[in-house]
Structure formats: structure tokens, C-alpha cells
Design a protein that fits this description.
The chain is of the alpha/beta class. The protein has two domains: about 1-120 and about 235-265, NAD(P)-binding Rossmann-like Domain (Rossmann fold, 3-Layer(aba) Sandwich); about 125-235, Dihydrodipicolinate Reductase, domain 2 (2-Layer Sandwich). It has helices spanning about 10-25, 45-50, 80-90, 105-115, 125-145, 165-175, 180-185, 235-250, 260-265; strands at about 1-5, 25-35, 60, 70-75, 95, 120, 150-155, 185-190, 200-210, 215-220, 225-235, 255-260. α1 (about 10-25) crosses α8, α3 packs parallel to α4 (about 105-115) and α5 packs parallel to α6 (about 165-175). It is elongated. The mean pLDDT is about 95. Bound molecules: nicotinamide-adenine-dinucleotide. Nicotinamide-adenine-dinucleotide binds near residues 11, 12 and 239. Nicotinamide-adenine-dinucleotide binds near residues 13 and 98.
């Protein structure tokens, strides 16, 4: 049994993670952390997730938890996640990070924590998306430089970072397969007199609106045909189930930085 703590338990993903732990037979809820200023401190986490009482109460910090748990699942915000990663490295706790929008410095700090404890970090925890990463590598390798690559994503109106971590991950997968450096070739949105498209670029377009959980399409366009690889998430449960699966997998691993591809055996 993997004893799991949910960070940001009151968030959209936090509540969904509470439900995913509840339905997973290999996992048990050991605690949940909400913001210290929240009126939800002390509330029963089962009730918070609409599951009925579970006798595990929301606390206001990791220090306020009892010590007997295995893995922290964190879907919050980059600065918060980094503080928690340092705490986990110090306390010897495994960590699953779903937070997106980390800059290069923050990614390096997370990798440093992973030298001490096992960490899974994935911008998207869904099985389908991780399969798409694999399909994208195959498509890019087969189609090569003759096809223009564009990534289009849409998310709900509350999302704060753009393009999505998943869109960037898809762009990276294609760039790697084509021997390009995404930092050099990425184009984030276009406006005005942009001139003709440079062949090696990988374009990103971001749409925001309504309650869209997460749509991603990678377009490979050549003269005469177009290949599109699309993933559409219709429920946050797909990410939450993946995160809980990652937590159970991570419990018995040595320190290191792992991806969802590792968890799913796709590497
Ligand atoms: P959200 O705003 O609904 O939830 C974030 C929660 O974190 C809030 O409840 C907030 O109160 C809490 N929080 C912030 N600081 C805290 C602190 N110091 N202590 C405790 N709690 C704190 O956002 P969301 O839609 O749930 O998304 C959260 C993150 O997860 C985003 O970065 C999003 O992009 C990412 N996400 C990743 C995946 C994936 O599969 N990897 C899927 C969906 C969302």
C-alpha cells in the first residue's frame, strides 16, 4: 500500500487526486495540505472531494503532517512546488510533480532534489498523451524535414501558463527526433508581417476558453498532405489516475528524476 499526501488538496487537480487515491486499491490517503490562509484547514478531505467523511483532515503545511507516509503528489504552482521539493529532499520523501510552467532554473532545482529522493515530473500524466509522445517521435522520424510542424493547444479559461507544458513537451519530442533544439526553432504565436514560414521552425498556437480540460494537436504539413496527431482530455481524472499510478510505482525506486514514460514502460 502506498500512503499518499496531496499538496494543494483544494485545487481543481487536488480534489480530483483525492478521488483518484480513493478509487485506487494500491493507494491510501495519508494527508492533504491546503494554503495556510484557507478556511478549509481542518476540514475532512473526503468531504472536500465529495466522497463523504474519511477522517483525514486538511492541514496547513507539510510540517503539520504525521511522519508515516510515502509519496507527495504536487499539482500547485512552480514556486510552491520547488519549496516542497526541497522539503521532500531533506525529509527523504518521494515526490510526484504535475505542476507546469517551471522555468529552466526551477527545473534544475527539481533535478537537484531528485539526486536525494525519487521524483516523477511530467507535464501531462495521462496515458494517452504519453503514448502520443511516442507516436510523435515516430511520425517526426518518418516524415523528416519536408513537413512543417505546428502545435495547437486549448485549455479552460483559468489556466495561467502558455503554451501548456504538454504542448512544449510535444514540441520537444518532435524537435529531438528531427535533431533540432526547440529553444532555437520555437515560434510562440504570430502577428503582423511575419514573412514566410522558416522551414525549421516549430510553431505554437494557444487557445483559452470555457471548461476545456486539455486539447492538443500536432500538425505535420507538407505540399499535398497533412498528418495530425490529436489528444483530447475530457476529464481531469485521466491526469489524476496517472499521478496516483506514478506515486505507487515511485515508492520502491531509488533517487532519480523519472518521467511518465518511465512509469508506463514506454522508454
Ligand atoms: P488550481 O489553481 O485549481 O489549484 C492549485 C491549488 O494549489 C490551489 O487550490 C491553491 O490553493 C493550492 N496552493 C497554492 N499554494 C499552496 C501552498 N503553499 N500550500 C498548499 N496549497 C497551495 O490549479 P489546477 O488546475 O489544479 O492546476 C494546478 C497545476 O497542475 C497547474 O500548474 C496545471 O498546469 C497543472 N496540471 C498538470 C497536469 C498534469 O497532468 N501534469 C494536469 C492538469 C493540471
Amino acid at each position: 500500500m502506498t500512503r499518499i499526501v496531496i499538496m494543494g488538496a483544494a485545487g481543481r487537480m487536488g480534489k480530483t487526486l483525492l478521488q483518484a487515491v480513493d478509487e485506487n486499491e494500491q493507494a491510501v490517503l495519508a494527508g492533504g495540505v491546503v494554503e495556510a490562509s484557507s478556511s478549509l484547514v481542518g476540514v475532512d478531505l473526503g468531504e472536500l472531494a465529495g466522497l463523504g467523511k474519511c477522517q483525514v483532515m486538511a492541514v496547513d503545511s507539510l510540517d503539520a503532517l504525521r511522519a508515516d507516509w510515502d509519496v507527495l503528489i504536487d499539482f500547485t504552482a512552480p514556486a510552491v512546488t520547488l519549496e516542497n521539493a526541497a522539503w521532500c529532499a531533506q525529509q527523504g520523501k518521494a515526490l510526484v510533480v504535475g505542476t507546469t510552467g517551471l522555468n529552466n532554473e526551477q527545473k534544475a532545482a527539481l533535478a537537484q532534489a531528485a539526486q536525494k529522493v525519487p521524483v516523477v515530473f511530467a507535464p501531462n500524466m495521462s496515458v494517452g498523451v504519453n503514448l502520443c509522445f511516442k507516436l510523435l517521435e515516430m511520425a517526426a522520424a518518418a516524415l523528416g524535414d519536408d513537413y512543417d510542424v505546428e502545435v495547437v493547444e486549448m485549455h479552460h479559461r483559468h489556466k495561467v501558463d502558455a503554451p501548456s507544458g504538454t504542448a512544449l513537451g510535444m514540441g520537444e519530442a518532435v524537435a529531438r527526433a528531427l535533431g533540432r533544439d526547440l529553444e532555437q526553432v520555437a515560434v510562440y504565436g504570430r502577428e503582423g508581417m511575419t514573412g514566410a514560414r522558416a522551414r525549421e521552425t516549430i510553431g505554437f498556437a494557444t487557445l483559452r476558453g470555457g471548461d476545456v480540460v486539455g486539447d492538443h494537436t500536432v500538425v505535420f504539413a507538407a505540399e499535398g498532405e497533412r498528418v495530425e496527431i490529436t489528444h483530447k482530455a475530457s476529464s481531469r481524472m485521466t491526469f489524476a489516475r496517472g499521478a496516483v499510478r506514478a506515486a505507487c510505482w515511485l515508492k520502491s525506486r531509488p533517487a532519480g528524476l523519472y518521467s511518465m514514460q518511465d512509469v508506463l514502460g514506454l522508454n
